[in-house]
Design brief:
2 copies of one chain form a homodimer. With 161 residues, chain A is mainly β. The first copy, chain A, has 3 helices and 10 strands; from the N terminus they run E-E-E-E-E-E-H-E-E-E-H-E-H.
């Protein structure tokens, strides 16, 4: 029921939602666009509002030069646009709404085309125990933490409708 | 007469050659292929024999998050091929012959198409004084250290013949 996410560093759980929470517009949000240039190693470019960066995550395995190094490298807007236009898969665009919930922060990802009306809620935890102890709000639906079809890297290579 | 190169870290001088040195086949060499995905920041993918990596070099300026960070990140062969196929400019292919010369090492870059018959000799130095004191061998021709048209990033965006 817990899951080390794409970045290999965080413990998180992921849920579909039954409906949107009340007063959605009152929360802070970020506009996120991301695209994958390669998946092994993972090279992802991302826009978060007006910040642009490339994430590199080394592939695992016994070859130490290819172990789990991870870097977030700043890009200019122009470099982001050049690189995202080179992505093989889909460009993922989503609005990430930040919803405080007890001592946790729910990241509610509202996807744009071609994934609309997909909505996924993610919650990150410090420890596996905290992840297991988490009681979701009643507007959460199914726990899809272990379902790879909800991973962003997987979505980016789905066929568009 | 000296020059901080593309990588911002080395002092080097660069020359055209009058002719190839004797017994060229007796020296060690590497096969290098490289391509640029963006130039600001510089994102270059490179093959050196059977090693593949991506070099990221942050752009300078007052924004510290974009300062001169430089990373060499390992790639798989497949990721290199995917990324080099996405390069906007030319893929540079060259044989780099390593020729010991006194206490220096001459890197003689013999370019393949579309730059053939371009040949450039590079020598790196520890200090600016050493660069200025360097006496080239008689088979070197013109010092082109300051000529941007001999830079690899520039070559990669030249029109092919």
């Amino acid at each position: 029921m817990w899951y080390i996410n794409d970045m290999g560093m965080e413990i998180e759980r992921k849920f579909t939602v039954r409906h949107l929470p009340d007063e959605l517009d009152s929360y802070e949000y970020r506009i996120i666009e991301q695209a994958y240039l390669t998946t092994e190693p993972t090279i992802r470019v991302r826009r978060e509002d007006d910040r642009y960066y490339m994430t590199y995550k080394g592939v695992g395995g016994s070859n130490t030069s290819l172990s789990h190094e991870e870097y977030n490298l700043p890009l200019t807007k122009e470099a982001f646009e050049t690189l995202s236009s080179k992505a093989d898969g889909n460009i993922i665009r989503k609005k990430r709404v930040l919803i405080p919930y007890g001592k946790h922060m729910i990241e509610l990802d509202i996807f744009d085309e071609p994934f609309k009306p997909l909505i996924i809620a993610e919650v990150e935890f410090e420890t596996v125990d905290a992840a297991n102890a988490f009681v979701p709000p009643d507007w959460f639906d199914e726990d899809v933490t272990d379902q790879r079809e909800y991973r962003n890297a997987y979505l980016s290579f789905m066929n568009k409708e």
